[in-house]
User: Fold this.
Amino acid sequence: MIRSRSLRLMLAVALVFSLSLPAFAGHGEAKECKKGILLVAFGTSVPEARVSLDNIGEKVAKAFPDTEIRWAYSAAIIRNKIKRTEKMIVPSPAAALAQMGDEGFTHVVVQSLHTIPGQEFSDILETASAFNGMPKGISHIEVGAPLMHTPADLASMSKILPTLVPAARKKDEAVIFMGHGTHDPGNIYYPGLATYLQEQDSNMYVGTVEGYPALDNIIPTLKAKGIKKVWLMPLMSVAGDHAHNDMAGPEDDSWKSILTKEGFNVTTVLKGTGEYDAVVAQWVAHLKEAFSAL
Assistant:
């Protein structure tokens, strides 16, 4: 009888001890849950273009008032240029995550501020995977989708973009949204968006600097329709170098110069999509979805 009671006591003590084990870390101290958000933009070396990123940051802070927010730029060429010209260090996603891990963050959402899931987004996924669950680092990482990631995102953007066009634009005038474009399979989102957009307004188009559709694919259609005036708007989070130079610049190879030479009257709008609250709301929605999975 005594032996049986002793055995039951030993089993009870062992059970209590085993249940308490997950609560301890390191030298027996509980690791406090600390959540954070890392916003990752491609980046821009044009200071005035950062108004877009400021607006995104404000909207995210409003949606997550009790969560610390950090920033990183995914483009090394942009980070290096800022370091050289402005003497300012903007971390890469890897550097930012390493720092957050060192500072005790346990749960982090890495939110992409890219337009499509191209190579930059693939790199973010790979980086997040490398840091996820790292010993003595961040225990859980979720990645928020870029602006356009699902058919629903494309449909939503096709309804939002027409509302961003200045009221002075007339229905018989064309609007071309300039995207970056890429050789990555993710480029398919641009012609996909163009199809959705045409259903909303047959005189609205999507073109890209480095992918398909190109401006050359759009000009013949404009001429066939007898279009006289064209509005150019960036389909990029910031109105940076591409918008100022490739779209609206005075050089012969800018879209404005090419279209003007082709006989069109051209008006440019130098505002990144991050300056429009309706667009930012879609990024924030992706962030909320990822945050809820932490």
Observations:
- The first strand starts at residue 35 and ends at 41.
